Amino acid sequence: MSDHGFKGQSAADYHLAQLNVGKILYPQDSEEMAGFINALDEINALAEASPGFVWRHQDETGSAMSYTMFEDTLTNMSVWENRESLFDYVYKSAHTHYLARRKEWFEMPTEMHMVLWWVPKGHLPSLEEAEERLLYLREHGPTPMAFTFKRAFDFDGEPLPPAGVMAKA
Q: Comparing C-alpha atoms, which of 56, 49, 53, 54 is closest to residue 20?
């Protein structure tokens, strides 16, 4: 048993939270960013219609564009039923078209820019919580507290197979 203190609970009691931050290359309202900005409604609708989607961070207009975590970054935070659901959305849906184009809009990260962690079912993480997890990952590497698709852990801290195994499924 890990130090999470989840004794007596099961995977059904948890959801997977994710944060992804990207440093934009141009101002949000620039012509260069238009391809990304104009696709956000489609990308968000695809996520929300994906199996396993639970919630995404957004303002009252449905946008997350007003939130930044670090200078010139955009944030994307969501909660999913499990790692497989999130993986399928990110790497096996029409989202991959936009993922392949990310170099047009975002600097290539030089440090961890995405973090995963388990939350109790019904808990909606705050940006502060997500930032703590990302900074923890950057400082300590993947652990049960903050991990990646490549080095993941289940809700009680046990290592999971890398995402490459899921990619072949």
A: 56
Whether 148 shows a pLDDT value over 50: the answer reads: yes
Contact 43, 90 (CB under 8 A): no
Is pLDDT of 4 > 70?
no
Contact 124, 114 (CB under 8 A): no
Q: Which of 28, 30, 11 is nearest to 67 (CA)?
A: 28
What pLDDT is stored for residue 168 in this prediction?
A: 63
Query: What residues contact 153, with CB distance under 8 A and at least 6 apart?
Result: 2, 142, 143, 144, 147, 159, 160
Question: What's the rounded Cα separation, in Å, for the pair 115 and 125?
Answer: 13
**Mean pLDDT computed over 121-146:** 97
- Which backbone phi and psi does 116 adopt, to 5 degrees? -120, 150
pTM for this prediction:
0.90
